[in-house]
Structure formats: C-alpha cells, structure tokens
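agent> Task received from the user: take the single chain below, predict its 3D structure, and emit structure tokens. No templates, no multimer pairing.
agent> Plan: (1) validate residues, (2) run structure prediction, (3) serialize to tokens, (4) report one or two observations.
agent> Step 1 OK, no nonstandard residues flagged.
tool_call: predict_structure(input=
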Amino acid sequence: MIEQRILNCAVDAALGRSSDPKFTPEQRVEGMRAYLAELGKDYRRNEVLINEVIEQTVDAILPIKITERLGVFADVSQVQDGVTKKWHVKNGKITAAYTALGVEQPRQKLYKGTFVTQTAPIGGAVYAEYEDLITGRVDFADMINQLVDAIMDQIYAGIQDALIGAFGTTNNANRFAGSSFIQSEFDKLKGTVQAYGKPVVFGTAVGLTDISNGAGFDWNKTSEADRLDIRNLGHVGKYKGSDVVELPNSFTDETNSQKLLDDGYIYMAPVNADKPVKIVLEGNMHIRDKQEKDWSTTKEYYRKAGVSVLAVNNMALYENTSL
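)
tool_result: status=success, residues=323
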C-alpha cells in the first residue's frame, strides 16, 4: 500500500481538486507529476511502486467519476473479489434485468424483488517508450486519467449493450425508431416514462443535438436558457422539465472509423429510488508491465466490472436511424 498522503495527492490531481487547504488544485497536479517523474528516473527500481500508485488511484477515482457522469440514472457499488452484488428493487412492477460486459446472462427474472449483477474482466493497455521511462518524461498522472477513461468507455458500451438487449427491435409504448427527431413521438415515449417518475433524457452529444423544446429548431424562437445550453453544451440542458445528460463518446480505435456508442440512441428513464442502471466494480485494478522487442513498455490493465439494466417497462428508447 502506498502512503495515504501520496494517494490523497494523486486522487486530488486526477480530479482537479485539493482536499488539503495548504495547496491549490494546480499545486496538487504539479506535485504529483513531479513525484511520479522523479520515480520514473529510476524506473527499474520503482516500477512496482509506480504501478501501485496508478492502481490505487484508479480504484479511488473510478467510482467517483462514474457517479459524476451517470449518477442521475445509475447506482454504483464496489465489492471485494469473489463477492456477488445483490440488488433490491422496490418497484414491484419491475420483473427482470439485463446484464452486459461480456457476461452470458441476457435476461434474469427478479426473485422476491432482488437480482444479482455478474462481473467480467475488462482490460486494455497503454505503452511508454523506454527512453521516456528512464528519463522521467512519462506523464503518469495523464496515464491514470487515460486508464480511467478507457475503463469507463467499456462501461458505457456495456450499458448500451444491456439497454439495446432489453428494448428489442419492435416499436411500442417504450420504443420508437424513425429517420429523424419527431417531437410528437418523442413526447409519447416521455409520457410513458413520466407515469413512473420524472424522466431524465440521456444520449451522446451528437444524438442530443436535434432535441428542441419547440416544434422544430428555430434559433429565433429558442429561449435564452436553451441558447446558453446549446452554446456551452452543444444541446439543450433540459427538455420540457427533464434533465438532459450527455454520455461521453469516443472511437473504438485510432482509425476513427467506428464509435464506441451509437449516436442514434436516446434513452429516457425515471428518477426515483430504483435507478435503471446498476454498475458493479469487483476487486481492484491490476497492472503488469510487458517489455516489447523495441524496449518500449506496455502496461496491461485488468479490472472486473458488471452492468445490469432493469426491465424496460419504466424506460424508453428513441432511435434516430439517420445517425
């Protein structure tokens, strides 16, 4: 275990804050960067310590980042290795849940209002050049954020997979597919969700762009509040009283040929005691170094996580097939 003061500084730096009144957020960032750079100058001797700093920092900030991004419609739970998370659902009308992230468990019936989320390993890698390692030029603080973002990308994809599996492909009171944003159809779905609680709308930035509080998009008739949201966010922040939440999107690889999340999917879910998305983080982050033939070092990471989505009677999916 690394010293608590080091971990606190690493977490502050990654989150852009300072939990110590003696330092500013900027000083925490620079302090952590200098500490890791100094360790990197003798990388062979300090490899284990550097990896421990990265692992424990990722473990600390991952649930915070997930809650910040998804907390309005998702619950997050951390469990020890080998522990299965059991969720209790208060709404008796919800009868099933769907699980993703590589787990072969497409549909699970609730038993006495409970269900479990199975986890599966997710992994990936980042690399550093040998010369950068031995001269302390690797920005390990930036590497920590890259690792967190990579894990969260896979969790986002797991949420989308579970949601798509739950909704199926047929238009009904909970699902509509069309070649554009049709406000009347969108409002019908919103009305379905509203019967269970105040809806929240979520999708990618591209998918949310077409949503307008008016009949069609007319900048001259758009409210000042919506104009400010569009300038600052790229989309409205509220739709007819409902919060609009953006899911960060990225590409699956450096070719930029395929996005991680489908921009055409917009979801609606009620804000109540039974948040529709359940995320489980099991155990801890693990990193190992692999030296390549060119002497560069690849850091392979391993993290267990699981995603479940409650059955869709209280949620809705709008699919814009043109995106």
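agent> Step 4: summary for the user.
The first helix runs from residue 4 to 15.
agent> Done.
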